[in-house]
Amino acid sequence: MSKLLLKAMQGPGHVAHVTPEIAGWTYVGFDLHKLDAGQSVCGKTEDKEVCLVFVTGKGKVTANGEDLGLLGDRMSPFEGKPWSVYLPEGSDWWVSAETDVEIAVCSAPGLGGGLPVRIISPEGLSQETRGKGTNTRYVTNILPENEPADSLLVVEVITPGGHTSSYPPHKHDQDNLPAESYLEETYYHRFNPRQGFGFQRVYTDDRALDEAMAIEDGDVVMVPKGYHPCAACHGYDLYYLNVMAGPKRTWKFHNAVEHEWLVAK
Hints:
Shape: globular
Number of strands: 25
Enzyme class: isomerase
GO molecular function, one term: 5-deoxy-D-glucuronate isomerase activity
Protein name: 5-deoxy-glucuronate isomerase
Organism: Phyllobacterium trifolii
CATH superfamily: Jelly Rolls
Largest sheet: 7 strands, antiparallel
CATH class: Mainly Beta
InterPro entries: Deoxy-glucuronate_isom_IolB, KduI/IolB_isomerase, RmlC-like_jellyroll, RmlC_Cupin_sf
Number of helices: 1
CATH topology: Jelly Rolls
CATH architecture: Sandwich
Strand order of the largest sheet: 1-22-19-24-14-13-12
Structural class: mainly beta
Strand content: over 45%
Helix content: under 10%
Distance between the termini: 35 Å
């Protein structure tokens, strides 16, 4: 099995765990907690900033002793937009599940930006459609670069069954602005129906890295560098939650030259 693929674990509990030490990189962390109704989870951001994303379910949230109320309303990641909470470095947080909950903890270095805790409501999230034909996918921007944060970029994407995504193949592994930015990235994958599967390839131009993976519901893929296209098999829609971070908080990607002709189609 590829070292870039973390297979889904059964919940409830702490079912996915990516740190810079585990991934062999510098910036991105990702954790996924599945809670049954009545269960709770808590954490400290320490020297990182965090974006809590309610992938599914409803829960009461407390941050730095402040009651943020009951957040979350969708019971499937394939419905609507998520509720999220931004937490700066040095924060404590606690989530108590009112229903079954999947809560993603997206993290990256805090840079002393002095930003406050804030609720990111669905009403404020922009959406866009990317691609054409069988390369069409639907994007919800949770923490894009035009919204305040120190390092984090967070986005979710729904790709219909039979479609490709993160395609034409692109990469962002060079700190070479304005042409390209260096961003590490994780993908948290879900399928509808849940028995579905798809494929993701992570590869570099010289093929020193070239990993092709079958992805299933709940899998996490780490992208340290290179191109990273996905494909959803016919009949099974693919959702993924992306977390990106690097030395500069901007998404500037480079398309694979041999496939760039597809952009014009």
